[in-house]
Every structure is written in structure tokens, then in C-alpha cells.
Amino acid sequence: MAEDPRQPLDVRLETPAREGLAGTTSASVYQRLDDPEQITIAPDGRPADLQPAWRRDFPIDWPQDHYVERRDFMKFIVLTSLAFAAGQFWIAAQNWLRRRRGQPEIRRVASLDAVPVGGAVTFAYPQEHDGCILVRMAENEVLAYGQKCTHLSCAVQPLIAEGVLRCPCHEGFFDLASGRPIAGPPRRPLPRVRLDVRNGEIYAIAVEDRTS
Amino acid sequence: MGKPDSLHFFVDPNRCIGCQACVQACTECDTHRGDSMIHLEFIDRATSVQTVPVICMHCDQPTCAEVCPADAIKRTGDGVVQSARKARCIACGNCVLACPFGVPEVYEDRQIMMKCDMCYDRTSVGKKPMCATVCPSQALFFGTREQVEQLRPMSMPVNRFHFGRQTISTRVWMMMPARVAPPQPYVDVTAAMDERPRARTLALTPATPDDPFAEVGV
Question: How many helices (H) and strands (E) does chain A have?
Fold first, then answer.
């Protein structure tokens, strides 16, 4: 513990008592701070009750600026917890609804003869507004993807000669064989529509949503 | 943690020798490297070599914070007025115009006001501010009231300033010759601007004979 700073001081420079003046003494040897709750006195000198409301809302003193009332803190905690709890119920409800919907129905897309090799047709699956595109790559190879670009939902166009699907809005490119993004802004692959060919007819049987 | 209550900043312009050590020390600080927050001003450069170091006076009711439209200038509980908060400062320069001591400065390139914050990183852990550490004549002195009374027996610290109709009390003390100080000491800055220097006598016998850095009478 250091000496009482009120004690008379040897004013010569190289004395032990002047250590603090060289900036080497730790803070613990000094007295404690002012009351951190100290209130700013307005220039007109009137008490805080008579000051305009903005002085309370925008205090100059840091402690008041950072002050959070217990009631505000409790409100924040309770509302945040409620939001999290409600979120759990919402997720559970979504899961339940998805399971209830089940598999989409099998639907006929086109007959195999109607699509030439290297040609494409569009169709809607599983709902009316879920645009999809079917490409016949080879004699016995047909592929189908959701047509909405995973960036901003523009319709992608097949460039079969180059082996890509191109989104004209922001020059996004997907691999035609797998539906995965290869260039441009999209980061996720296109949803793949699983197909089945029976008796020369192409049927869509499921949609495979992929995230990576 | 904050500036210890017992330690104060005392500025004694009489002792300033204009060596720029404070400016260089301030420039080297890592929180604002390359820019000095302390201004070394010449009083009347044409006729005198007298200089005065200008640090933030840390007003009890800071005018810079009063005029700040973005609520960016805050004072910590220990009475130290801090630089503008980066997230709030809009670099409007109101504080520059308002401060009666001319302390804040707007840095246009990084769009912020920065000013002397009494080396808060140092004073808040009980160290002296950089400028007071290096000042060879201790024109910038940081210590207890008792220490300064002992070191400067012929001066008295003053922290009230009159600028026209505005009276300002500050956390930083200005040393004033005790002989001429009125009973309720204050510095009338606007009146002093017209004052002409009087003929003075310098007594070169120091107050404490052992100490080469002791105060001399003016």
C-alpha cells in the first residue's frame, strides 16, 4: 500500500515518493472514483425535473447514457424468450404440415417421342406454379430440374450444346448433368425432379430439394 | 475503472518552454498515431516566444457535448470528456465551433472528431497522461492537489473561466500567480484578450533551493 498522498512530499525528482509521477504506480493505490451516478448540471443551473425531456433522453454522462432500467431489461428478456418459444412451436407446426402433405402425386409430363434428343420441354410440378424444365440428353437419358434460379428465381434456360443451364438475369450458370451452380451469383443447386419412363411416357414422381 | 479521483491535471503556461515534447509524445500514442491531440499555441508569435500547451479542459458542462446533434460526445463518470463515438459522430464540426478553448478537431479523411481524452487508457489505470510524463519543465503536471501546492507555492490552481457571459468550470486546472489571484479566482478570458503585458521582474531564486526545477517568482 502506498503512502497517503496528503503526506508532505519530497519535491526532488528521484525520490521514491515521486514514483507515481513517472506513471509507474498501479491504480489500486489511489482513492476510488466519483459516484458514477453523478448527474449533469444543465447550463441554466435548474434541477433535473425542470429540464426538457431531451436532456433525460440524451444525457452527456456516460453512466446515464448506458443506464438500463430493470423494468426495460425484464421486458426485453421476457419478450425475447417468448419469441424463441413461439419459434419452436412454429417449427413443429411446419414439420407436422410437411408430413401431412406427403409425397406429391405422380404426373405424366410428356411422351418420350415428343421430346427430340437435345430438346427440352417445360412443365409444372408438383404445383401449378412450380415451373420445371425437362431435357432429353440422350436416347435413354432424361433430366428435369426446377426452373427457378436459386439466386432470385428467374427462369433458367438450357444451353444443351454447352451442357449448362443459364440464368439470363445475372449470368448464373448451372451444370446440366447435376443441376449444381458453376458460375455467377447462385450458390445452391436447382431442385431436381425425379423422372420415370414407362411405356414411352415420362412421369415426374418426386422433387428432390437440395441445399448443397 | 477510471481516472483516480485524487489526481488532477494542472497546466502552468508560465513554465512552458515550447519544446514540443508533449506534441511528439501525443503523436506516438497508438490510439491516434500520427495525430497530436495536444495543440502547442504561440501567444503572440511576432513579439514573444511564449507558448501554451492546449489540452482538453474537461468541462463540468461540456459545451462540445451540449451542441453535438448526434449525441456522440460523452463524459465518463470520472469527469473525463471522451472523443466522439465513432458510431455516432457525423463530423459536422459543431463541437469545433463551440468549444471555447478550441480543443476538438474534425478529421475529414476519417469523418470523425477526435480530441484530447486525458490519455484515458493511461489515466484510467492510474498512470499519468503521455504529455505530463514527458514535459521537462512540468508545465503539464498530473498529480494530487497537495503535490502541486508543494511544488508551486507561488501559484494557485484555477478552474473557472469567463467567456463573455458563459462561465465554465473545468476538471483541468490552470496555474495562476497566487499574488494576483482574486478571492474567488477565475480567468476572464475575453477581458484578457485585450490585456497588454506589464513590465515584470523575474526573481531567479528558486522557491526550493535544492530543486533545479523549482518555481521562480514572476
Answer: 3, 10
End-to-end CA distance of chain A: give it in Å, rounded: 64
Q: What is the pTM of this model?
A: 0.60
B187-188/B155-163 β-pairing: parallel
A35 touches B77 (CB < 8 A): yes
CA pair distance B30, B203, nearest whole angstrom: 41
Q: Quick check: bond before A126 cis, omega within 30?
A: yes
User: pLDDT (tens digit, 9 = 90+) per residue, B106-139?
Assistant: 999 999 999 999 999 888 888 899 999 999 999 9
Calculate the alpha carbon distances from A42 to A59, A187, B83 in Å.
Answer: 10, 57, 20
| Cross-chain CB nearest to B6 (options A9, A26, A31) | A31
Whether residue B1 lies within 8 A of chain A, CB to CB, comes out as yes
Nearest-5° Cα angle at B105, B102 to B107? 165
Q: pLDDT tens across A176-212, in order? A: 999 999 999 999 999 999 999 998 899 999 888 888 7
Q: Which of A6, A26, A29, A62 should one mutate to test binding to chain B, selecting the residue with the greatest count of B CBs within 10 A? A: A62
B167 touches chain A (CB under 8 A): no
Do the strands A181-183 and A192-198 form a parallel or antiparallel pair, or are they unpaired? unpaired
Let me know the angle formed at the C-alpha of B66 by B63 and B69, rounded to the nearest 5 degrees.
130
